[in-house]
Write a structure and sequence with these properties.
With 100 residues, the chain is of the alpha+beta class. It has a single domain, classed as Alpha-Beta Plaits, CATH 3.30.70. 35% of the residues lie in helices and 36% in strands.
């Protein structure tokens, strides 16, 4: 079984775009949290060239088990950060879970 990869799509509030990029970017709050867990590989933040306020994140883990262990161990911190970032977007949705 290969790496576990999941994608999320976001529509960002124009007035919160810079803040969104700070939280979701390569050295942002989410990556800081993920790096505390064994098995985390990387996060990519992609901005749509045609729709400036549309973003996709690509999170990579060594396995689905590593991701599940992270979610269990860091559930409180994950939920707190999720609440903090909720107002940065008008829409967010999972795009799928993948293996390489």
């Amino acid at each position: 079984m290969g790496q576990y990869i999941y994608l999320w799509e976001f529509q960002v509030r124009a007035e919160r775009q810079a803040e969104f990029e700070r939280h979701y970017g390569a050295d942002g709050s989410w990556v800081t949290l993920f790096r505390q867990a064994p098995g985390y590989i990387e996060t990519l933040l992609l901005r749509d060239r045609a729709q400036e306020l549309r973003y996709v994140t690509v999170d990579r883990w060594v396995s689905v088990d590593a991701y599940r262990a992270f979610r269990e161990e860091f559930s409180r911190q994950y939920d707190e950060l999720d609440r903090l970032c909720h107002e940065l977007t008008t829409h967010e949705a999972p795009l799928g879970e993948f293996t390489d």
